[in-house]
Inverse folding.
């Protein structure tokens, strides 16, 4: 009986892993300065998922749950609380190639990168979840553990602050602040 | 170009650039590594207690190893597997290897480092005034995935509560946790597993069938005791027996009667687990048959 449960868990975990791996890898690579850190984030996120399978929601909600786990793992790394639960040497090597092959930040020209750096971590993460992970406010709310309305309003404010930051770093260009209603997809 | 597009272009990679990455060698290797780790704690059988050099009956008070309640393996000491430590508390120390909360009249320890530096842990203990609490690393199987943790104390009034790996709600990546009364007196020792060197005996049992262990690749679980013993001997190893008695109160778990003579083992009883201490002996944990009578104290 226990073996059957364990086998079911393994099958389910592998299915979730295969389905979400590219997205969690992308999440980590976009936020980590080094490939080693990105590999650690990916590995630790899935280790936690494996150990907390009972909490992993089915379907699409599982991806949002994993983003939430990855976010907390990343925060721990940034606080210097690091733990390497697996060796993941091959993953690290592949991630290194990914970093090496990635073009220089496309946003670095014309002050976009500088504008992103002017944002608070919270604003940058909100925009990233919306633009990079392509989450709608309801999904962002799931990841951040807040209400949908709060996510929507905070995202709107983050967009406005990004527009203002761009005005500072790219004074010759015109920028938009998208109206609130457009944020619902 | 709108602002979202500019932000998007600031990404190092986009998900669409990663198509096919879920089946690379790195992804496969990571998946394999993770699946080799302990599965979900709520469904895992906790590893049994270390073998004692004398029969279980000789001990003055019974100790029970409960099943399926924790990830970390309890070594020794007067532990009670208790409720979650998640109560109102104040963080009094935070380091890479351990976070310490003050919870009422106890300190709660959340261990987050798989291969900690004892000196760092002892420094943390000193920070909160636990000057007599020391750390000892003990050899365990290099294949041991879950942290091995033990605690010995000399203060009879001190209370220690082990909460195992169910602690990540308090600290992300928490490996194991325990709490102890803050006014503990006298010497006390925290024991943590370290990978044994080649040929070194283990201070904590490993599953004999794990890759690299003495009975690697041989499935003993579920076999009749006599057949399992034959297979072990065919590998040039000796056999000893433990009996796994169900708890008398009907609770979820078993109590180990250790070093049981073969004359008390029915050849048809089933092997639950097989342990190795890397010492040429395999300990077969046998489930007594339904008609078996437990000895006094079990």
């Amino acid at each position: 009986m226990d073996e059957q449960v364990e086998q079911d868990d393994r099958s389910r975990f592998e299915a979730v892993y295969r389905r979400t791996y590219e997205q969690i890898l992308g999440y980590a690579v976009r936020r980590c300065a080094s490939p080693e850190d990105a590999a650690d984030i990916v590995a630790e996120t899935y280790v936690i998922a494996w150990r907390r399978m009972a909490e992993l929601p089915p379907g699409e909600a599982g991806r949002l749950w994993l983003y939430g786990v990855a976010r907390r793992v990343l925060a721990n790394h940034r606080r210097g609380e690091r733990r390497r639960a697996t060796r993941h040497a091959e993953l690290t090597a592949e991630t290194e190639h990914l970093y090496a092959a990635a073009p220089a930040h496309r946003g670095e020209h014309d002050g976009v990168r500088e504008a992103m750096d002017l944002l608070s971590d919270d604003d940058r993460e909100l925009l990233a979840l919306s633009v990079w992970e392509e989450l709608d406010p309801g999904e962002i709310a799931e990841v951040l553990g807040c209400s949908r309305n709060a996510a929507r309003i905070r995202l709107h404010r983050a967009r406005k602050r990004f527009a203002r930051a761009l005005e500072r770093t790219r004074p010759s260009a015109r920028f938009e602040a998208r109206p609130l209603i457009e944020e619902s997809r | 170009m709108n602002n979202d597009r500019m932000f998007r272009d600031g990404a190092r990679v986009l998900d669409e650039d990663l198509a096919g990455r879920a089946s690379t060698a790195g992804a496969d290797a990571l998946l394999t590594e993770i699946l080799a780790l302990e599965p979900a704690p709520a469904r895992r059988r906790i590893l049994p207690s270390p073998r004692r050099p004398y029969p279980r009956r000789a001990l003055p008070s019974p100790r029970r190893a409960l099943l399926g309640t924790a990830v970390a393996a309890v070594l020794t000491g007067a532990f009670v597997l208790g409720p979650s430590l998640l109560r109102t508390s104040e963080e009094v120390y935070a380091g890479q290897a351990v976070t310490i909360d003050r919870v009422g009249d106890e300190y709660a320890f959340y261990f987050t480092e798989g291969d900690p530096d004892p000196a760092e842990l002892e420094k943390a203990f000193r920070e909160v005034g636990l000057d007599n609490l020391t750390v000892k690393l003990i050899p365990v199987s290099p294949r041991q995935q879950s942290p091995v943790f033990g605690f010995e104390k000399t203060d009879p009034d001190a209370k220690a509560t082990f909460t195992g790996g169910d602690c990540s709600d308090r600290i992300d990546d928490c490996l194991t946790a325990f709490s102890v009364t803050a006014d503990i007196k006298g010497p006390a020792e925290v024991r943590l597993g370290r990978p044994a060197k080649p040929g070194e005996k283990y201070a904590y049992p490993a599953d004999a069938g794990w890759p690299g262990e003495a009975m690697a690749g041989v499935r003993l679980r579920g076999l009749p005791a006599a057949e399992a013993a034959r297979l072990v001997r065919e590998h040039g190893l000796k056999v000893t027996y433990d009996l796994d008695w169900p708890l008398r109160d009907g609770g979820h778990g078993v109590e180990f009667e250790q070093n049981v003579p073969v004359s008390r083992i029915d050849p048809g009883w089933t092997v639950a687990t097989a342990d190795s201490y890397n010492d040429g002996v395999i300990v077969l944990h046998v489930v007594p048959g339904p008609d078996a009578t437990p000895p006094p104290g079990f």
About this structure: Chain B is about 15% helix and 30% strand. Chain B touches chain A through 50 residues (CB under 8 Å). The longest strand of chain B covers residues 238-246.
